[in-house]
Amino acid sequence: MFGIDLIDAGMLPALFVAALAGLLSFLSPCVLPIVPPYLAYMGGVSVNQMQGAERRGPVVLAAGFFVLGLSTVFLILGIAASALGRALLQYQDWFVTIAGIVIMVFGAHFVGVFRIPFLDREARVDAGDQGGSAFGAYVLGLAFAFGWTPCLGPILGAILSMAASEADLARGTVLLGGYAVGLGIPFLLVAAFFPALQGPMAWMKRHMGRIERISGLLLWTVGLMMLTGQFAAFSFWLLESFPILATLG
């Protein structure tokens, strides 16, 4: 059908979910509030100086290297998760079932059905005085990816579970690349258009609870789809509705 086998078709919604998960991670309570001061520090300017177009160049450059740093960590995690799934290939059906259950538990955490205490903590890594340089921004990106992992745990864990269920290094890496894109692009947009985005960011901060619940609902739905095998059905629906997607296979 459409020249795409089942697992290829299944990648379409999985990649979309991974990118959306990265965006929701950016909007989480432990990331969004620290974005402006973090970007200012990396660019060697103050938050007020980010208002001026002439001072945003270094900030955008630093943001690019920062995103490269965090993407490095997430891609390595994707390779590791996929390698684990490949090693356990004979237990793939059980692996997908367990991954679906874990993702649904993470979703319930975000929705507020119950709270998992260690997922509300931030284990930040001190990267030292690394502000004001491209290399420093890259190091801070590495530190951010490692240090904020407990905070990003529910969403990142869901994407890692999906990567492991693929049991293919290339596919798992692509999924974590999608997550890195969803998380990293907003950093670049804020760095480039900080004055214009201050209003929307303030609105998002006021609605953190709603954003968390949306994240939880997304995770719970993804977990349920993995349990019931509906990812493939959703993929074929996408292909039937948007035939141009078939060229991606």
From TrEMBL:
UniProt KW keywords: Cytochrome c-type biogenesis, Membrane, Transmembrane, Transmembrane helix
InterPro entries from the UniProt entry: Cyt_c_assmbl_TM_dom, Cytochrome_c-biogenesis_DsbD
Pfam families: DsbD_TM
Transmembrane segment boundaries: 12-39, 59-82, 94-114, 135-164, 176-197, 217-239
Domain Cytochrome C biogenesis protein transmembrane: 15-227
Membrane topology: Multi-pass membrane protein
Major location category of this protein: membrane
Record's subcellular location: Membrane
One GO CC term, this protein: membrane
Gene Ontology biological-process entries: cytochrome complex assembly
Presence of the UniProt keyword Transmembrane helix in the record: yes
Family: Belongs to the DsbD family.
Name assigned to this protein: Cytochrome c-type biogenesis protein
Organism: Gemmobacter megaterium
Lineage: Bacteria, Pseudomonadati, Pseudomonadota, Alphaproteobacteria, Rhodobacterales
